[in-house]
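Chapter review: from sequence to fold.
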Amino acid sequence: MKVTSKKAAPLYICIPAYHETELEKALMDLASNEGEFEVWVHLNSLESDQEAQLFNASQYEALQGLSKQLHYPLNVIHSVFSDKEGGVGLARKILMDTVVDHCTAINHTDCILACLDGDCRVNENYTQEIIRHFSKNKDTPACSINFEHPVAPSENIEPPIAAYESHLRLYRQHLRFMGHPYAFHTVGSSMACRLTAYVKQGGMNTKKAGEDFYFLNKLMHLGGFSECFETTVYPSARISTRVPFGTGRAMEEVKQGKVLDTYHSAIFDVLKNWVDSTLFGGKLKYQEELNHLDALFGWKKDWEVIQQNTACEDQRVKRFFQKFDLFHTMKFIHALRDYKYPNQNLDEAFQKLCIKMSINYKKGWYYRLSCLRDLDKSS
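The token string follows.
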């Protein structure tokens, strides 16, 4: 490992890179940012991937030369993982834990850890706005940063990445519709947290995929989770077969002929009624579906325990959503999908959302995506 700075910085940007050909471009994007920050890169590969190992070794040497041209400290670590244990979760964890150890060694824990991927592009205000966001929001432990996949409105046929982003945003807006306080994006390349919050919640997990979802879900339990819309991350739309789900896998499935769809809008009608009837005494409308969820997950017993151990409504609501967080809500969504409500066409789901939120519906993939992006920013 090469550590080029022992000074304290307010922001540490953590980039895992697996045979990443676009990494230098991302680093040069960061060079256009002003202010104090450090960048830490984790070059990682699997034992079975000799090509990636050779590429990373060459890239490590190239980064030593590039670091002399940058105004910020660039620190690089290098790992080769066993095929059984390796993955993006382990790569992120080792990288972020290393940064925590470094900051602790110099007695500097009042700082921010931002996660970025090596194939992303960022705005010139990326670092400044992240620092400003945490400075302005003193109580926030972590935030999701605005992201937009690069697409051209002139394309007649919807690009697969636009369809996938629409799915993510429809899911988020439907969570918001059902009243879930954890209705935030969980994209690994556009998230940041305080170092203290990272340590408090046990750090990053080692999952091969979905590590960002599980990590941010834990941080949301702390309360005060926020969103930074003052800057934007532009993730890649690249195909990947190394993970079981996520952007890269979705793009690979499209290549194989799959049509991207989304969760059925009716699922969130059920879940909204579940929240309203359970927490606030609303009329129960979906007895069959909720009995099915109870048979699978025993949520009624969990609710009884919450009621017995809380003294007031505010505490009950808080405990309810801590129990039925994003992870458990996703399990409910998948159960309802498999039981009664199969996935839905993106346009149909968007039209239903527009009705629920009293906004104008218009056909067209770019209008849908733009509208969903605007909805996210207004929430």
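Two observations follow directly from the output. Residues 265-378 form one domain. The radius of gyration is 22 Å.
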